[in-house]
Write the structure tokens for this entry.
Amino acid sequence: MVRKAVLNGYTELMFRWGHDPSALMRSVGIDPAMTGGEGWLSAEAVNTLFELSAATTGHEDFGMQLATARGLSNLGPVALAAREEPDVRGVMTMMLRHINVHNEGLVTRLIEGDGRATVQIGPPAGFVLGPQSIELTIAATTRILREFLHDDWQPLTVCFTHQPPSDLGTHHQIFGANVRFGSSFNGIVFYSHALDRRNETSDPLLRPLVSQYLQSLLPQESATTADRTRSMIESLLPTGRCSAAHIARSFGMDRRTLHRHLTEENANYRSLVDEVRMSQAQYYLANKNRTMTEISQDLGFASLSTFSRWFHSKFGCSARSWSSQRVATSEARTRGESPT
């Protein structure tokens, strides 16, 4: 689910381009009369709506155009808490950690190393984000960083897993010259020192109050060892350094202790690796912009044949067959047909 605020500016943009959005909204199950005020919409419906809107209007930069009026305030209660953090690192950490309060269809993380920071954006397990949703999110995140840095701030690189549109004008206007397509992840790369920038709008007296308010909106359960392990697996698989021992050390424990904690939560390391691989495999194959060899490497397999055997054991078909079926279904939905 996603808060209705995700459609802020949508109808105005469609009308500006000479299109009535009502029919498109109804086609994905969104009632145009019910989009105002507080409330939630289906993340899948919104994702499909943005892809249909781009196709209908002929604007491949639809998501980024929609992001031009977006800033931190669009995140509602998350924005209230983030604005009171003392520096940009705190702002971004607060925003990314609690993005599910605004949009349950996003998984985000902030990774730092070698003097660089990367904000990675993707879908949760079992969900596929279209290029428009990805570009909207990354453009909006870039605008939020500029709110706390300066208006002409540019990231080092902006990465997209999908293929480039025919015209990159809007991409270069928003992100600068270093935009990469067909990448292994969706996200923004910039120098880590930008995160040290002081947040001049922060009020130390308000911080505990807004934090308490935000906590009241969150699910009560805390992150489990399985959740933390799953997140580490997602980050480490492409590096070739993903192991239970490595993850255990990062948690300040030995491998045996990690296994004990996972067992207490009815989980185990191997099943979590398979879970992450299945989710990532579906995502990479659905986007159709990586070779099978690249996918197998990003999922941590030693060879393409090992990946192929694993995929067939989990999905009951080859990776190429699964990909072809997914593309056919997606194209049928885009045309408004019922997939067979």
